[in-house]
Amino acid sequence: MSGLEAHLETGVTTTCRCWALTRRDGVVMGFTDHDRELVFDGIAFRPDTGLSALALQQTTGLSVDNTEALGALSDAAIREADIEAGRYDGADLRAWLVNWQDVAARQLLFRGTIGELRRAGGAFEAELRGLTDALNVPMGRVYQKSCSAVLGDRDCTFDLETPGYVSEREVEEIEGNRVFRFAGMGGFDEGWFRHGVIRVQSGAAAGLVGLIKRDRSEGAGRVIELWHPLRAEVASGDALRIEAGCDKRMVTCQIKFGNLLNFQGFPDIPGDDWTITDPTKSPRLDGRSRRR
Q1: pTM, whole model, 2 decimals?
Q2: Could you give the CA distance from residue 184 to residue 131 in angstroms, rounded to a whole number?
Q3: Looking at 98-107, 227-236, 273-282, which range is the least confident one?
Q4: Domain positions in the chain
Q5: Which end of the chain has the smaller Cβ count within 10 Å, N or C?
């Protein structure tokens, strides 16, 4: 019998709940509904966050365990600006039942991730998703003309540290956390970074990533525009890492990156009209519209 089980058998218990939250940027935070700080596993679980949880629903089979966590927003713990920036999206969370008189007597009750997170009136409400939620993710390979890999991932294998594919510089001018203007970007052709990413390395938006929609020249300068604004304030002088983009075409993989052997698309796959057509004398059946 474990220490916690023996304690519960006594009928007079001194238990509380503790939560450990690990964000994707590596920040670890501890919370408890006890009235004093508890420490175990190298984590300090703080009582001043107002965090609490609703009843945990756990079932057998492959259904998703779920619960919700409620808490107060504060500068000392969970800040509204960090929620807005998406820093808690997909964060890992563990929950224990703990004997606060002997923290070695504890039981892990839940492990999962944060799903939908809502905030209002100085408080937040977070949906917690169990480990079986990952089983809802579609698996398998998509057969399509364009490449299905992400530039630099294990399927693509291209090394972005290769000279000429990354520009590290500071923010010069920015509009709406979306449009970056630079005095010049020598050594990189216009459009080189289109479909690439901007990674913010310092400042309030450190750790955030934006997808590049356009990369164009403007006079002697350069303009890089994101699809969506970054979800935290970016200021002049913040450090950026700008990575080259790939439009997923075979010719781009071959000429721009010299990585054709790892191309993950199927450029010669028949188009939809080829698979459903009746016999015809048409010389081209590749899915494109025909001009008459």
Answers
A1: 0.72
A2: 47
A3: 273-282
A4: 3-136, 166-243
A5: C
Single-letter amino acid, residue 33: D
How confident is residue 271, by pLDDT bands cut at 50, 70 and 90? confident
- For the segment(s) 166-243, the CATH number from 2.40.10, 3.40.50, 1.10.287, 3.40.720 is 2.40.10
CATH code of 3-136, in short, is 2.30.110
